[in-house]
Here is the input.
Amino acid sequence: MSADPINIIVGADLYGVLIVDGLRKGAVGQPIAQNSVLGWVISGPIPPSKVESHITSVASSEQPPLRVSAHHCLNLSLDQELRKFWEVEELPHKTHLNPEDEQCEEHFRRTHSRCPDGRYMVRLPFRAGPPIEIGRSRGVAEHHLKGLARRLDAHPEQKREYSEFLRDYETLGHMIEVPASDDADEQRVYIPHHAVMRESSATSHLRVVFNASCATSNGSSLNDHLLVGPKLQPDLSVIILRWRLFKYVYTADMTKMYRQIRVDPRDVTYQRILWRERPTDPLREYILLTVTYGTAAAPYLALRVLDQLVNDEGQAFPLAVLILQKGKYIDETLFGAHRLEDLRIARDQLIALLRKGGFELRKWASNNSELLSDIDPANHGLACNKILKTDESLKILGVSWNPALDIFQFQTATDAPAPQTKRSILSAIAKLFDPLGWVTPVTITAKILMQRLWRLKFEWDDTLPHDILREWKPIYNQLSALNELHLPRWTGQESDSDRCELHGFADASNVAYAAAVYLRVISKSGRTTISLLMGKSKVAPVKTLSVPRGLPESMHSDNGTTFVGADKELVKAYRAAVNDPNFLNAIASDNVQWHFLPPSAPHFGGLWEAGVRSVKYHLRRVLKNHTLTFEELTTLLCRIEACLNSRPLAPLSDTLDDYEVLTPGHFLIGSALTVNPEPSLLNVNENRLSRWQIIRHITERFWRLWQTEYVSTLQQRVKWRRLQAPVKIGQLVLLRNATLPP
Here is the structure.
């Protein structure tokens, strides 16, 4: 079945005329099918996570699956991507393994092995299994292959490259052809594949990508059953910054990195593909024998194997170990040294260590031609030619680097007329890759304009007003001017430099804030070199204060009679409304879990019960024989609550002149619960006070009693059995002043 163009849009006023007898319903929350004079019409709710393509399969064991597809296109994903446009990039930080990451790590340690030639063999890290609960996938793979054949027939050159890619895959022993099997006991997964064009690649413009996220007949995919594993690659910006410190540098890629790692024969049945070069050829079935890019666990397995290689063989290659630990990003390595001899030694160690695991390096490049003279020219790739041309550059982790001039460059294509829609403006800005913020002065102006378009709520493809286009044109012209901008790669730092200084600058305004860090190097001869290391920027938030007030995931309370009674009423209401789809959708999205403490066991809620006890104890002492109205008691309790929620928890910042502290009130209203100072009433006779002044008087007495007890708990004096750090200059402390009112 092929899609036809839309000829007419039918309005809701004709809906009743078009429908005929025939209505098919699925489960609650699924679409329904209504028969009409035009055919079956599908309508109903669609889960947000499945808006791109929804497939319902009706299959039997004799016939291939019948698929009915409904496509609904939204701009939600683009809106969500735009939200990230003005977010500050997170700096590297230490991550902690979650249970799934720990499971994946333990699985690798337990199941990996070495082949006789030194290569590693791994098993696929399934969440549960094998076997796994996955549907039939051969029909889906055949359907995708037919669509791929039609696209390749329209582009003969791509078809030739595609066939050569898979022939090379088979020639290298990375996949083998197998006969079609009807063994019902053997679980098989067929992975669709397609072409991805990479115009910037120095070796091959076409790459075959395997789509292990494609859904099978039961809606799950192979990737749904695989663990992703923890993030092992270091931060890209850190690698580039470290690479800039060396006078002489190398860069190289690992040849077919994923495909040097074999998959255990027990798991290769989950990596089957279908292929034929010509429509007249019989359909052939292949098994992929190596780690396959496109599977969820492939990046983790590849990097984890390199880490394991370091653990197994790295003792004899200390310089190579340092490179693989701090200068590796996926399959690309960047390393350097201050002396040519030291760099050659590190290079030879790296080559030797990687060969122990079956990995080879290619696409060598360097800022010094002598460093390439003793490398096989076949492994130079395009880099060997480009080092002699000052007008060409290489892509190093997405950043353009000219090895002959040893400079970073920016390449922007702005020959076309300036974009005039919100979508085209975002596209023009997103083409500029600047991971270290070197052109922040240009990108921040673009971010400010993009935020303005966001606030004005223009549609993505509407032509923008003239005043905004006039503001955008100078920014667009600045993008083209970036082609003339270059940044020295080397920061000038040497092993015998006299002095190195880091200088950081930051500034903020009502529309944005930014920071920049420079390195100032003073050589032994007195020569000074200043280099921009990194810049960061962010536009001012649309909402100056954003306090999340969502529903809690779980709630805990004591076993009070009122709570238990309310719970019983809710259970009755739930049973009465369990068949209402609106009610089911509401509780599915809320999903609040209520937990009762055991009866007569308030100590289970020690944290909040301690706060309740503190309030009750001091409140009883200050109220004494006072009789308050409901409004007066409510006011008093609110003021007491403010007293408790104004206690300091931690400094808001590390700035020496910032005396603000974080309090529980910040989590409630975004700031401390403070009021204007009022004169104390403690020394005034109660007979002379009004009702409002009595409330203030009681509050002050409560504050005096409570703060005396609370402050004492902050500086408990215990036995001097272990050293404790004394108060330091510049440290924020709490001063005790009995004369200050709450």
Q: What stands out?
A: The chain has five domains: 12-40, 99-383, 407-539, 544-600, 610-713. The CA atoms of residues 640 and 699 lie 7 Å apart. Residues 48-74, 381-391 have pLDDT under 50 and may be disordered.
